[in-house]
Amino acid sequence: ALEQTLSIIKPDAVGENHIGEIVAHFEQAGLSIVAMKMIRLSREQAEGFYAEHIGRPFFEGLMNFMTSGPVVVQVLSGENAIQRNRELMGATDPAKAEPGTLRARFGSIVSANAVHGSDSPVSAAREIAYFFDQDAVLLRN
Ligand code: CMP
C-alpha cells in the first residue's frame, strides 16, 4: 500500500554532515520526501515523542542525545514506506545492522544510531501528526 512514515535524522548524523547522503539514500530507494524541517527538539518535545519509553533505563540518555543538536524531521512517502524505511535503516543497534544500511554507515552505538523511523502504521500516523500540520504534508506519489 502507499504509505507515509516519519523519519528523523538524529543529532549525530546531522553534526557529522550526513544529511545529504541520508536524503539521497531515501530518494534513490524510491521514497519521496513530502515534508521536511530542521529543528532543535526541546526536552518537552523529545519526551512527548518518545513517551512510550519513559521509565526505560536508557530514557535520560535518549533525551540528552535527542536534544543535543538539530535534527531533520521528514515525512517519507512510497509503496510500503514504513517497512521499506526500516529496511533502509537496519537494526536499532548499528553493530547489528546489515552492511550498507543507514545505521551501519552512519550510526555508532544503539544510543547514537543516526536515524529514527516509525515502526507501524499507528505510530507513523501519530509521529507525522506530532511534527507536521496536515496541510504541510504535500501530496506526491
Ligand atoms: P529509535 O528508533 O529512535 O527509538 C528509540 C531509541 O532509543 C532507539 O532508536 C535507540 O536509539 C534508543 N535505544 C533503544 N534501546 C536502547 C538501549 N538499550 N540503550 C540505549 N538506547 C536505546
Give the N-to-C terminal Cα separation: 12 Å
Rg of Cα set: 14 Å
Relative helix content: 25-40%
Q: Give the averaged pLDDT, no decimals.
A: 97
Report on the biggest sheet: 4 strands, antiparallel
Strand runs, count: 4
Strand content: 15-25%
Order of helices and strands: EHHEHHEHHEH
Structural class of the secondary structure composition?
Answer: alpha+beta
For the biggest β-sheet, the strand order reads: 2-3-1-4
Number of helices: 7
Which cofactors or ions or other ligands sit in this model? adenosine-3',5'-cyclic-monophosphate
Judging from the principal axes of the Cα atoms, what is the shape?
Answer: globular
Given as residue ranges, the uncertain stretches (5+ residues, pLDDT < 50) are: none
Task: Walk me through the structure.
It is a single chain. By secondary structure, this protein is α+β, with helices and mostly antiparallel strands. The protein contains 7 helices and 4 strands; from the N terminus they run βααβααβααβα. A 4-stranded antiparallel sheet has the order 2-3-1-4, sandwiched between helices. It is globular, with a radius of gyration of 14 Å. The mean pLDDT is 97. Bound molecules: adenosine-3',5'-cyclic-monophosphate (CMP). Adenosine-3',5'-cyclic-monophosphate (CMP) is lined by residues 53, 58, 61-62, 92, 110-111, 113, 116. Adenosine-3',5'-cyclic-monophosphate is lined by residues 53, 58, 61-62, 92, 110-111, 113, 116.
